[in-house]
Amino acid sequence: MRIYIAAPLFSQAEKEFNLTVDRVLRDLGLDTYLPQRDAGEAAPLIRAGADEHTVRARLFTADCTAVGGCELFVLILDGRVPDEGACFELGLAYAAGKTCFGLQTDSRRFGGTDSNNLMIDYALGGGISRSLDELTATLAAHLHGRRPNTTADGSGPADSEPRTPTAGGQPA
Asked: I want to staple 78 with a disulfide (CB 3.0 to 4.6 A). Which of 15, 25, 30, 106 is the partner?
């Protein structure tokens, strides 16, 4: 099963974390698409002399095609706000009916709430995990057709109401 990993990829720390997430998902038996590895990064290519428009158009097309070809989608939400490009990719995945999961290990949020923009939270019908271990358990449960042992935020048993509603505002 193919999973798209949407994440910021602009610092060494972000890129290394993305590779860690990729490795963990591959260990689950998932075939991953990681844009920084599979399509490339715009800035280094442009700095090396490639035409900016050509590079950007190629990456846009490659990533949009990859979102369409995946069955699952994971959005890394870390940062004060989630990455704009990753949010666009989430919209594509959601509109295409993909099962979307979030990973949010960063507690910073504007206004001091634990919520993201409602358009993000409600598109993540697979829930939002607070750690890589929790995401792994959630995805493993999904792959085996069962509910994880905890809610999306790790706060309670699987039969309690999850923190993140599915599309339409109904609890998962």
From this structure: 106
Amino acid at 23: R
Q: Which residue has the tokens 């602009």?
A: 10
Per the listing, tokens 């609890």 go with 171
- Lowest-confidence segment of 64-73, 76-85, 122-131, 144-153 by average pLDDT: 144-153
**In this structure, how many other beta carbons lie within 10 angstroms of the beta carbon of residue 127?**
25
Question: What's the whole-number average pLDDT of the chain?
Answer: 86
| Residue 141 contacts residue 147 (beta carbons within 8 Å) | yes
Helix (H, G, I), strand (E, B) or coil at 91: helix
Q: In this structure, are residues 4 and 71 in contact, taking their beta carbons and an 8 Å threshold?
A: no
This model's pTM is above 0.90: no
Q: What's the mean pLDDT in 87-100?
A: 97
Sorted by sequence, the CB contacts under 8 Å of residue 20 that are 6+ apart come out as 132
Residue 61, classified by CB atoms within 10 Å of its CB into exposed (0-12), middle (13-18) or buried (19+), is exposed
Residue 30: other Cβ atoms inside 10 A? 20
Long-range contacts of 147-152 (CB under 8 A, 24+ apart): 151/127, 152/126, 152/127, 152/128
